[in-house]
Design a protein that fits this description.
Order of helices and strands: HHEEEEEEHHEEEEEHEEEEEEEEEEEH
Helix content: 25-40%
CATH superfamily of one domain: Efflux pump adaptor protein, beta barrel domain
Largest sheet: 6 strands, antiparallel, barrel
CATH topology of one domain: Elongation Factor Tu (Ef-tu), domain 3
CATH class of one domain: Mainly Beta
Strand order of the largest sheet: 2-11-14-13-12-15
Strand content: 25-35%
Number of helices: 6
Radius of gyration: 50 Å
């Protein structure tokens, strides 16, 4: 009776999954249930892994013990570090820019004015010569011979003239005595005039020979730099040769011919008619290095219809030879100098579809959008015509992290190691939020995540 009852009891225990006292199962657990629990554990572990760092960061306190750094900056988060500048009173120029080329005032191709052998060259290629310096010599001997012949002919004709004058004086005495016919006296006078003409011809021949001898010594017609030698000594040169002996280019002074738009012409003409001496600055090809400064000399007499531009010439003393003939330059014509205007760096000026503005730093270290009007921009400076006063502080870098009312930690441009609170009376009165934040939570509060402010639209 006991044995069947025991067998039925054990069968029920196995169906219920109950193990025996020694820990061994009377029936094995289904394998699929183990895999299910393992999958659940993995999902929970992954959720904890991804959720825990964000929760810890959101609960991390700011350096001043304030609200979480991951919140919006305009709602009490840590101050945003920015670089600020002050609007200042200064001067700015109004420039007209144009492309130009360095053009010598004088360029001379030196040619021989007589025929003959090139005997000697008295210059070096690339040498700077002064006006009147001896450059080359052409064989003068043929012209010296011509000079001697002309002088001999002059002496002969002079002697004939003297004899004719003596005969004329004799005939004038005899005509009074009716000893000679009157026609002989008239003929003698004509002979004297003939000899006088011959003497003038002889004198011209003498002067021509002397001039050719002078031309045999070739001198510099202007001061300037000599180019490469075109003819070597020993060659026979002629006055009709197409190519010259050398080329001299004047470097001091030198000019720049550049163009401006026709719309800019009335301002330039008005200034020149008023007697203003307009300054012109020449820059290199990259517009980074100023080469020289000069003065506007003249303007062309007509506008190029194909380009709508007008040519202008500016003169430069070029004392240091910064400008070289045919060099490409960027010319900047100063037409007006504005003094006593409000200036800020161009980097601080922001623009959108509706307005031009700056982020203005208020005395409580918060920022606000301030609409401004701008005038001339020159280099890194921009003229402010309205909206800012000298001494106002504007954000220059870090504007992408700002929105209306954002607290900022302002450092003036160029400062090293000093964090100055814009508009505060003293560092002791600065709010604690204005101190630099260095922790991970502070970095997120300054510009990361959901708390990143947006610029005005």
């Amino acid at each position: 009776m006991d044995e069947p009852h025991s067998t039925t009891f054990e069968r029920e225990r196995r169906e219920a999954g109950v193990t025996s006292g020694d820990g061994s199962p009377n029936a094995p657990r289904p394998r699929r249930r183990g895999w299910l629990w393992l999958l659940i554990l993995l999902v929970v572990a992954a959720g904890v892994y991804y959720a825990w760092p964000k929760r810890a960061a959101s609960q991390a306190p700011t350096p001043t013990g304030g609200t979480p750094a991951g919140g919006r900056a305009g709602r009490g988060a840590g101050a945003v570090p920015v670089v600020v500048v002050k609007a200042q009173t200064g001067s700015i120029g109004v420039y007209f820019d144009g492309l130009g080329a360095v053009t010598p005032v004088y360029t001379v191709t030196v040619r021989s004015r007589v025929d003959g052998e090139l005997m000697a060259v008295h210059y070096q290629e690339g040498e700077i010569v002064q006006k009147g310096a001896l450059l080359a010599e052409i064989d003068p001997r043929p012209y010296q011979v011509q000079l001697t012949q002309a002088q001999g002919q002059l002496a002969r004709d002079q002697a004939l003239l003297d004899n004719a004058r003596i005969d004329l004086a004799r005939y004038e005495t005899l005509i009074k005595q009716n000893a000679v016919p009157e026609q002989q006296l008239v003929t003698q006078k004509a002979l004297i005039e003939q000899y006088q003409g011959a003497i003038q011809t002889d004198q011209g021949a003498i002067d021509s020979a002397k001039l050719n001898i002078t031309y045999s010594n070739i001198t510099a017609p202007i001061a300037g730099r000599i180019g490469l030698r075109l003819v070597d000594p020993g060659n026979i040169v002629h006055a009709t040769d197409t190519n010259g002996l050398l080329v001299i280019t004047q470097l001091q002074p030198i000019s720049v011919i550049f163009t401006i738009a026709e719309d800019q012409l009335p301002v330039v003409v008005r200034k020149m008619q008023a007697g203003a001496h307009l300054r012109v600055d020449a820059y290199d090809r990259d517009m980074t290095t100023k080469l020289a400064s000069g003065t506007l000399a003249t303007i062309d007499n007509q506008i190029d219809q194909t380009t709508g531009t007008l040519k202008l010439r500016a003169n430069f003393d070029n004392s240091r030879n910064e400008l070289f003939p045919n060099q490409f330059v960027n010319a900047r014509l100063l037409v007006e100098q504005k003094n006593g205007v409000t200036l800020i760096p161009t980097a601080a000026v922001q623009r959108n579809n509706q307005m031009t503005y700056v982020w203005l730093v208020k005395p409580d270290s918060s920022v606000t959008v301030q609409q401004i009007g701008t005038g001339v921009s020159e280099g890194i400076q921009t003229e402010v015509t309205s909206g800012l006063q000298p001494g106002d502080v504007a954000v220059m870098t870090g504007v992408d992290k700002l929105q209306e009312g954002t607290k900022v930690n302002a450092q003036f441009e160029g400062a090293r190691g000093n964090r100055n609170q814009a508009g505060a009376a003293s560092p002791a009165n600065q709010p604690a939020a204005a101190k630099p934040n260095t922790g991970q939570g502070a970095a997120r509060g300054a510009g990361g995540g959901k708390g990143r402010p947006q610029q005005p639209q």
